[in-house]
Structure formats: structure tokens, C-alpha cells
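Q: Can someone sanity-check these two? First one:
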Amino acid sequence: MQGNLEGAYNAKHPADHEHAGEYCTNSGTCVIACCYINALGKVLLKGGPARAKDVRRDFERFEAFVEQCMPDFVTESAGLTFPPTAGGRRTGLDWLYEEYRCGFVHAFASPNVAWGPYPDMRKYWRRTSPRVVLNIDELVRGYRRGVNEFCKLPAADPELRSRFKDFVSA
């Protein structure tokens, strides 16, 4: 997982491109990070949550990882005001999941979505109005911190370690 994310994050435009040498995969980096957040949340929920009619089952997995392993994201987002997502929700977690993860995976991203590299800024969100702008650098740093937190959890729950593959492929 980490190698795929780092490959996208560190990718640069080729020499013959008008932006040669500049980083080029902000969208890919975000999608990869968000999909892995979702997968690791599925492990935290031990393959769950149980199948339900609720279309936000994947959101529950995403939320589990972010809340347990990226509490700084939750804290920062709680102090901000967000416009409603396409689904009418107004939290940073909903924005990251609905507009960034789902929006780009399923190709219906809102025109209010933007992201960019802000390597010196130690916040996830650059702006929340009128456009919501995600700092791709802090998302990657936050994901790395989250994975470090995730790796500590099997000490308290050995089933996570012994059944990781079962849970992630459930």
C-alpha cells in the first residue's frame, strides 16, 4: 500500500512536458490514499460493517480508519465550516469521502473541489469557501501517521494481525 501511494505522490512530469519536473499526480495520490483508508477501515471493522441497505457502508469503513487512526484530521475539520456536499453533508470527513474519494473514483467530482501541493502547510484544508481545497501533502503525511497508528492496533487485538487478509477481502 505504502509503495503505491509513494509512487503516485512522488511522480513528476517528464522532460518534454510543459510542467517538466513538477509533481503531477495530486488526483491519483488522493484517490489511492482514500481507497487505502477505506480498505484499512474494513480491516478495523473486521470485514464489516454487516451488509445493509445503507449505501454508506463504505463510508463507515472510511470513517473508522480516519477516526481511529487520523484523529488530527477529525479535529482540524471539526473547527471548519464546509458547504454542503452533493449529498448535503457538511463535515470534512464527508467532503474527503464523497467529493474527493467518490467524486474522482466515479468521475463526478464537483466543481467546488480542488487540491494542490502545499508542502510547508501543516493543515489538511487550505480553504473551505467558496471552493474546498485539500492540501495533498498533508493528506499524505496524515495517511502515513494513520498507518503508523493502525500498525499499533494488532497488539491490543491480535485477530487484526492474524486475519488481516480475511478482513480486507471479505
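And here is the second, same format, sequence then C-alpha cells:
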Amino acid sequence: MNKILALLSCFIFVSALAGCGAQRRLESKTPEDVLPEFFGEGRGDAFPDFLVGVWEAEIANSKWAFKFERDGSILKIIHVLAGEVDLRQEGVYLEGPDEGTYAVFVMGPCETQYNASERELRVKIVLDYYQMVLPQGDLEGKSYDYFKGPVSEDGKIWKAEWRSYSWLEGADPPNADAIEAEPIPLVFMKLKIE
């Protein structure tokens, strides 16, 4: 129950930041209608070795973490809503503590882009669909999370701006202007994992 309640409180936090109201349906606007262009022309520079590994940032009662592979791909993450996700399995299912409660998260494409001249790392995390069945009711939606910012000269700190576009079934689509104007600053640290 604690996991689902933590997910619910985190979702409410993210939804409030995204400016969700309670009028339109999830399908009313597609991501293409709302989202700004995130990646520049081409695929960026070669992914550097110093970024390979696990990067983690704390937020509220949760965290974000990415495991970058040598080619810049992301195979494992800790998602602020879904928790630990192996992207090769495309999602995660969590049993709730009460009978009939559960949460399901279906991931979409997750990508990186690195700009060597600015030492800027960009990451896109797509949650194509989620459903949380709680004693109080159901929540359904999707989210696109964008992270961008410079990596320190020593390759141990990534200061990223986080922009979260979240759609909740039955609510207004995200307000792109508000989200772009007030990104959430996060500091990712490279973890030493053997």
C-alpha cells in the first residue's frame, strides 16, 4: 500500500506541476500537438564513455535514475511513478496491497542525445500508458519527461532541467507554456557501482 500511495502522491505532485484540470479527455490532444521539439538536428555527438553507468537524482519522496549504455541507449531506469523498470520488458506491473488494486506502466521509446561542445546531455523518457487501480478509484494517463543540462567537467554531476508533460484521463492536457517556463532543477550524480 505504501508503494501505491507514494506513487499516487508523486503523480498528484507531477500533475499539479503539469497544470492538469478536469475537463478534457486523454485523447483530446496528442503529444505532437503539445510537445516542443526536444532533440536538435541529427542524433548529436557520439555518446562519451564518462556518461556510461548509473545516474541518480532525488525528488520529493522518490527519484529518477538512468543506466546509460555505451551506445547511449537506456536499458534500465527508476521512474518517478513506475519505480524500477527494465525497458527491454517494456513495462512493469505492481500488485497493490488491497484486493483488486494494482498499477501497470507501459513504457515507450527512451532516448538520449549528447552535445560535446556544450557538454549538454538530453534524455527523453516516454510512459505510453499507465493505470493505477486504487481503493479510491482508477487513474489512467501517459507522460513524457524531458531532461536537459550540462555535465560537469569531471563527469560526475549532471545539472538537468526536468520538464514533465502528463496527460490524465478526464483532465486538461498539459500547459506547454507553463511547463517550459518553470522547469524543475535536478542534480544527477553518477553512482559508483561495481
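A (reply): Looked at the second one. Residues 1-29 have pLDDT under 50 and may be disordered. DSSP finds three helices and eleven strands in the chain.
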